[in-house]
TrEMBL record:
Residues 431-869 form the GPI ethanolamine phosphate transferase 1 C-terminal domain. Pathway: Glycolipid biosynthesis; glycosylphosphatidylinositol-anchor biosynthesis. The chain crosses the membrane at residues 6-28, 324-342, 442-464, 484-504, 510-530, 564-580, 592-610, 646-665, 677-696, 727-743, 772-790, 810-831, 843-862, 877-896. One of its GO terms (molecular function) is mannose-ethanolamine phosphotransferase activity. One of its GO terms (cellular component) is endoplasmic reticulum membrane. This is GPI ethanolamine phosphate transferase 1. Its EC number is 2.-.-.-. Belongs to the PIGG/PIGN/PIGO family. PIGN subfamily.
Length: 921
């Protein structure tokens, strides 16, 4: 083993990337069955010849049904609820994004969460859907949604019309959100006028019109819900639906049209979506027309329906989003999509009892057919001795159950038929879940073993790093017989695992899950003698401190759900200089800055999440504060000893800060006037972004001055991405990190004369764990301190509107990631400076950081679940994904900041002379 850990870091990075992806492989595999499944024929004769599907993108049920102001934002749809049809709430699943939502509604099943990463544009849905089963489908709307269902086989009858992506302007310019829905209406009118007759639509049955209305989603991102602009967009959407309804009613005056209005997902208060909160998962569903019941009076909704909806007097139907596909299929008289997991919502249907029962058994037959295909798929991958069929008597005797259902229908015992069908449907869904998660425990066990094996390797590498050459060379000799036995044992298990995978026809990716833990633990056991013989590198006092840091990590883990715990840890940091005797002689000025910055940082976890209306005051105040701080630092006679003096870089920062403030002020006013993002301001934003990023690499050649340059650049760039109080965060973080750097140097300087760390045998001391723990804590604080939630939906489109407003998901997401990483850059730079100023092994310290992060990540791994409420499921996924993403970004930043913190830095530490004078005095 080499003393250098650098060669191991790329391997560890790849392993962490694998761990991140594995969570979706374990818990959220796609339910798609590759082998073709025969669709169950629908022989029902219904009154519906055509179906009109309206989707108000990003519209929560709360906003559509709200009546707290004494009026409805959507008067037409409100009148439909009260006079014409049935209404309710459609419950979506995570991730609450457009693609999974539309797949659930139109194809009837829930894609795995990784589907959102397959792209927003030209991402075809290559599986069965209601559109596939229809005779002909026409779609209007967004270029990111409506083309999805027109690709692949059997789609020649699906026609779509879209506007250009340039129209998806999230700046609010010229009422851009409302224009999207108006385009759908106007283009449909043109279609009726010029193309309608060419398709012979009047004679068509099983016809679908799909209108995708994106305005509410765009307005929610751009203007935020609960604003007048958002309310205006809902009103416009309602007007569009009303006009489309009127046109279609005049075209087909036969009462054979069914209308369905719903949404793909909701939206948070701060204009985002993706996770599992109620405002994101509860969407409206309104159905009226042929085959649909009229409004029913009911008192059962009291307590379930919010008072502000004023709808508790009407019967409310709650369904799952995938049920919509089954409902549309039954109404149209087409086959239910073969991968659908929806259940027919009988209460919507205005059918005879016999037709209800027949429609229900059709749903059950489709699910049983899918279950048998899934069972065959799993059975074909395993030898008989390894296969355990779904233990359910109803499924085992499903043919007899279906016979009994038919017998009950023939004898007109429809209640008994529906009851038997219900149990068959429930059992089929349970069976599908059983086979979809058949390998879950196996994959989870392999992943956990890999996690632990990697942890053991990291511990060994840390021990190697803190051992002298003499200690390493004194590695105890393990008998060749033991090594031979060890190699033979692992070789046998290795080959047996591969043969087992191949013989059972398991997916090839399973080989990775089997081989990875074996490889990691093989390496660990090969070095176990050395590890055991040198375990004394961990002093007893260090082990005690490790336990304390473990408790601190537990607090950090808990802070993902209780942010205020970060303030508790900050209180502990605040008193650190008081209880550490080596910091007694530290300058009072630095102690004061430390106390004040800790107190300031402790306020942020208590503040509400960033969202809502932009607060220009905080941004202007912060920009002015950065100018004052720069002048104050340079005028301070004490800090001049630390190399803080005017230079080209600092002058450049000061010179362009007023331009930055003017640019922010101009952009904010432009958005308020509804004029969007001016091109000049957009160019200035990109220019300043590149300029300040470049200045990080061109700072002074003294350490503290370089940190000041990095802090100022990060703070000013962060200002451009801020929308509220989070702009102030770097003003408190930077001085706190500066004090940490200097405190670590003081502690190191006091230790230096006593040579506690010797070169005969380097001991792993408390200092290494303290520095690593501080680093991990500052990283987590930097995430939550800027107003984020431990959720994938805590990001705000307003962060990037100084740079882009047209819908460009990858660019927007990249810019959002830049904002999140900016405080990370500052913290990682400080960590690099601490390593540099204390002459510590930065790679070894980073290994300790990885060990701490892994101990947190494995807790989140065990907390991940795909059961329970969608809020719990979404939160559990978010926690693990955020933690692993942070680790991956730390790998990148750790290497990138090397060029910021070491490029042309003077070999003599600029603070050594001052600290030595303080120490001697």
């Amino acid at each position: 083993m080499s003393r250098s850990n650098m060669g191991l870091l790329p391997i560890i990075f790849i392993l962490h990337l694998f761990f991140l992806v594995s969570i979706f492989d374990i818990y959220f595999r796609s339910p798609i069955i590759e082998e073709p499944i025969k669709a169950v024929n629908n022989n029902l004769i219904t009154n519906t010849k055509r179906l009109v599907l309206f989707v108000g993108d990003g519209l929560p049920a709360e906003h559509l049904f709200d009546f707290s102001s004494g009026y409805s934002k959507a008067p037409f749809l409100r009148s439909v609820i009260e006079n014409k049809g049935s209404w309710g709430v459609s419950h979506t699943r995570v991730p609450t994004e457009s693609r999974p939502g539309h797949v659930a509604m139109i194809a009837g099943f829930y894609e795995d969460p990784s589907a959102v990463f397959r792209g927003w544009k030209e991402n075809p849905v290559l599986f069965d859907s209601v559109f596939n089963q229809s005779a002909i489908t026409f779609s209007w709307g967004s270029p990111d949604i409506v083309p999805m269902f027109s690709k692949g086989p059997k789609t020649d009858h699906i026609h779509y019309f879209t506007y250009s992506s340039e129209m998806e302007d999230m700046s609010g310019k010229n009422h851009s959100a409302a224009q999207l829905d108006s385009w759908v209406l106007n283009n449909f009118k043109q279609f009726i006028q010029y193309n309608f007759s060419s398709y012979n639509i009047y004679e068509k049955s099983q016809l679908i019109f799909f209108f995708h209305l994106l305005g509410t989603d765009v307005a929610g991102h751009a203007n935020k819900p609960y604003t007048l602009q958002y309310e205006s967009t809902i009103k416009n959407m309602d007007r569009v639906v009303k006009e489309l309804h009127s046109i279609i009613e005049k075209l087909f005056d036969d009462d054979k049209t069914t209308y369905l209005f719903t949404s793909d997902h909701g939206m948070t208060v701060w204009g985002s979506h993706g996770a599992g909160s109620m405002i994101e998962t509860e969407t409206p569903i309104i159905v009226w027309g042929a085959g649909i019941k009229k409004p029913l009076m009911s008192n059962n909704s009291v307590g379930l329906t919010p008072d502000n909806w004023k709808l508790s007097h009407l019967y409310r139907h709650d369904i799952n989003q995938a049920d919509i596909a089954v409902l549309m299929s039954v109404l149209l008289g087409v086959s239910i999509p073969v991968h659908s997991v929806g259940t027919l919502p009988l209460d919507f249907l205005d059918f005879s009892e016999q037709d209800r029962a027949k429609a229900y058994i059709l749903n059950a037959m489709q699910l049983v057919t899918q279950l048998k295909a899934k069972e065959y798929q799993v059975r074909s991958q395993l030898a008989n001795c390894f296969f355990y069929p779904f233990p359910n008597t109803i499924i085992s005797n499903y043919e007899e159950v279906i016979y009994n259902i038919g017998k009950a229908i023939a004898s007109l015992d429809f209640l008994a038929a529906e009851d038997l069908t219900h149990h068959l449907i429930v059992s089929s869904l349970a069976g599908l879940d059983y086979y979809n998660t058949y390998f879950q425990n196996f994959l989870l066990t392999c992943t956990v073993l890999s996690f632990l094996g990697l942890g053991a390797i990291v511990i060994a590498e840390i021990m190697y790093s803190y051992s002298s050459d003499e200690v390493i060379e004194s590695e105890p000799q393990v008998s060749r017989i033991k090594i031979f036995i060890l190699k033979m044992a692992f070789s046998f298990i290795f080959l047996f695992s591969i043969i087992l995978t191949l013989v059972n026809a398991l997916p090839r990716r399973f080989i990775i899950y089997l081989v990875l833990p074996l490889s990691l633990w093989y390496w660990t056991f090969l070095k176990y003698s050395w590890i055991l013989s040198h375990i004394d590198v961990f002093k007893r006092s260090v082990i005690t401190k490790i336990i304390l840091y473990g408790l601190g990590l537990k607090l950090i883990v808990l802070s993902f759900t209780s942010r205020w715990l970060l303030s508790l840890i900050l209180f502990g940091l605040c008193v650190w200089p008081m209880v550490n005797h080596k910091l007694v002689d530290a300058p009072k000025e630095y102690k004061l800055v430390w106390y004040l910055s800790c107190i300031g940082l402790s306020v942020f976890p208590f503040l509400p999440i960033v969202g809502g209306e932009e607060q220009l005051f905080f941004k202007i105040f912060t920009g002015c504060a950065w100018i004052i701080v720069e002048f104050t630092l340079h005028k301070s006679s004490t800090l001049k000893y630390l190399g803080l003096k005017f230079n080209f870089v600092s002058l450049t920062q000061l010179f362009f800060t007023p331009l930055l403030l003017w640019n922010i002020y101009t952009i904010t006013n432009s958005f308020k006037r509804g004029e969007g993002l001016p091109l000049v301001n957009q160019c200035i934003s990109y220019f300043l972004l590149v300029l300040f990023l470049g200045l990080m690499f061109g700072g002074p050649n003294t350490l503290i001055s370089r940190f000041n340059t990095v802090s100022c650049s990060v703070g000013l760039i962060f200002l451009m991405f801020s929308s509220s109080y989070e702009a102030i965060f770097p003003l408190f973080l930077a001085p706190n990190l500066l004090c940490w750097i200097l405190f670590e140097r003081i502690i190191k300087y006091s230790n230096y004369s006593r040579c506690i760390i010797t070169y005969e045998k380097m001991s792993l001391s408390n200092h290494e764990f303290r520095r690593s723990f501080f680093f991990v804590f500052y990283i987590i604080l930097s995430f939550f301190g800027i107003g984020n939630l431990a959720s994938l939906n805590s990001f705000d489109m307003a962060w990037v509107r100084s740079f882009v407003t047209l819908f460009s998901p990858f660019l927007m997401m990249s810019l959002m990631i830049v904002k999140v990483l900016l405080p990370f850059i500052l913290v990682t730079s400080a960590f690099r400076f601490v390593c540099y100023i204390t002459k510590a092994n930065s790679t070894a310290l980073f290994m300790i950081v990885l060990l701490l992060c892994n101990s947190m990540a494995i807790q989140f791994l065990f907390n991940v679940n795909n059961k329970g409420s969608w809020l719990e499921i979404g939160t559990s996924i978010s926690h693990f994904v955020i933690m692993k993403s942070i680790v991956l970004f730390l790998f990148i930043l750790f290497h990138c900041t090397k060029y910021i913190t070491t490029l042309k830095i003077s070999s003599s530490l600029d603070c050594d002379d001052v600290l030595r004078k303080w120490h001697e005095s």
